[in-house]
Write a structure and sequence with these properties.
- By secondary structure, this protein is mostly helical.
- It has six helices and no strands.
- α3 runs antiparallel to α4.
- 12% of the residues are buried.
- The model has no long low-confidence stretch (mean pLDDT 86).
Length: 92
């Protein structure tokens, strides 16, 4: 079994603060997205979609919680695809 598969078969512990719980689903989704991103389980795109935030909003959330942004080829590919999709919809 390769490393990536083992990584996802291991138990995962997430902590949701009482404050996030009291704020409801959007805050809970953001807390989970931040933790999955910080643990390098989700890409920026996956995490921001889970949090239901724009790229800019999610980057601000990362900064607010002092979570360093990691950026790899997958993130670059997603950014390129998003930009191309945006250009194609703007041209119509």
């Amino acid at each position: 079994m390769d490393y990536l598969m083992r990584q996802y078969l291991e138990p995962l512990s997430l902590q949701i603060s009482p404050n996030s719980l009291s704020q409801g689903e959007p805050a809970i989704r953001q807390a989970i997205a931040l933790q999955l991103y910080a643990q390098n389980i989700f890409t920026l795109g996956q995490a921001r979609r889970l949090a239901d935030l724009s790229v800019w909003e999610f980057q601000q959330l990362l900064a607010q919680y002092k979570i360093q942004r990691h950026y790899d080829e997958t993130d670059l590919e997603q950014d390129i695809n998003s930009a191309v999709s945006h250009l194609l919809t703007v041209d119509r």
